[in-house]
Amino acid sequence: TKKIPILFITATAKDQSFLFKGYESGAVDYFLKPLDTFAVKSKVNIFIELFRQKLELVEHVTKLQKTQEELKQAVQIRDDFMSIASHELKTPLTSLKLQSHVRMRNLQKGDISAFTLERLQKMFETDEKQLERITHLVDDMLDISRITTGKLSMSLEQFDLCKLVRDLVERSSEQLVAAGCSIKFNSCQSTIGSWDRFRIEQVVMNLLTNAFRYGAGKPILVQVKALKDTAQIIVCDQGRGIAKENHERIFKKFERAVSGSEISGLGLGLYIVKQILEAHQGSIRLESELGMGATFYIELPLLKGKEKIDAT
Predict the structure, then answer these.
(1) Residue of 260, 262, 252 lying closest to 286 (CA atoms)
(2) What's the predicted TM-score (pTM) here?
């Protein structure tokens, strides 16, 4: 009863000692006999209102503390993001700057031998890789901004998922050679759905790139299946694998299966993949153990008959 306000009734209000005794016993107020029912109701309503306001104040303070904590976390995430982004962007920019200075010095010296056809070709290839890296980093940062503000737009169109994945596998031949991997794509029947072509390409290429990076030069298997109500894409590698305790963590912002010192990047790829799939009412899951490779399963809703998905 500690939090219940107690009102006492007395006929001896002329003696102050009795009133003090009532307050010392824990009462908050008193009534004189004979009772005035209107006064009783008014005072009770006042204490009820005070109690309600106290609860609201406690709730407000709790929400304020939660908001402050969320703001603090948001600031920390922003600072972490800026730190990682600046580091990742600085690396290819520094490389481009150094290459530019070297070429400038050779030109000033009149050293034409530094610009043979073979060397020029190598320079352009190196520059292109660095520019692609910068473009990829900027695209990731833009996607994170769109996701955070709820502006990750989808432009849906009907297309064959099987053909799209096959084309992406064929386009990845150079990456396969560089990674020392081979890839097997299981032939599949036409799998028609209504999705955002660019975003689905982004999802598949992210998983293929990860398979090249972590596949340890071993064969990679890619499959497309049409299930009852969904289309399924499977990307399976035989690399280092991912510990079970990290299966959920790698789909969060700035998280990777390995340390940043081993693999460059913002740690946003799988987070963006998950957000894109959820925007399609799809999903992604992982089956993996350390040393046993990793298999990613993507599921996307299929069209039923002539049904179309409204892009809005």
Answers:
(1) 252
(2) 0.60
235 CB-near residues (< 8 Å, 6+ apart): 204, 207, 208, 211, 220, 221, 222, 295, 296, 298
- Tokens of residue 86, six digits: 């600046």
The sign of the dihedral angle between the CA atoms of 287, 248, 206, 272 is positive
Return d(Cα 311, Cα 166) in angstroms, integer.
Answer: 25
Q: Which two tokens stand for residue 195?
A: 């999705």
Per-residue pLDDT of the chain (312 residues; tens, 9 = 90+): 777 888 888 887 667 777 788 888 888 888 888 888 898 899 889 989 988 999 999 999 999 999 988 888 777 767 776 766 676 677 778 878 888 888 888 888 888 888 888 888 888 888 887 888 788 778 877 777 778 777 777 889 999 999 999 998 888 877 787 788 888 888 787 889 999 998 899 899 889 988 888 887 889 999 999 888 899 999 999 988 888 888 888 888 766 655 454 555 556 789 889 999 998 999 999 999 888 899 999 999 986 544 444 433
112 DSSP assignment: G
Q: How far apart are CA 244 and CA 235, in angstroms?
A: 18
Distance of CA 258 to the CA centre of its chain: 17
Q: How far is CA 195 from the centre of its chain?
A: 20
Asked if residues 34 and 14 have their Cβ atoms less than 8 Å apart, the reply is: no
With 0-12 / 13-18 / 19 or more C-beta atoms within 10 angstroms meaning exposed / middle / buried, residue 151 is: exposed
d(CA 266, CA 25): 65
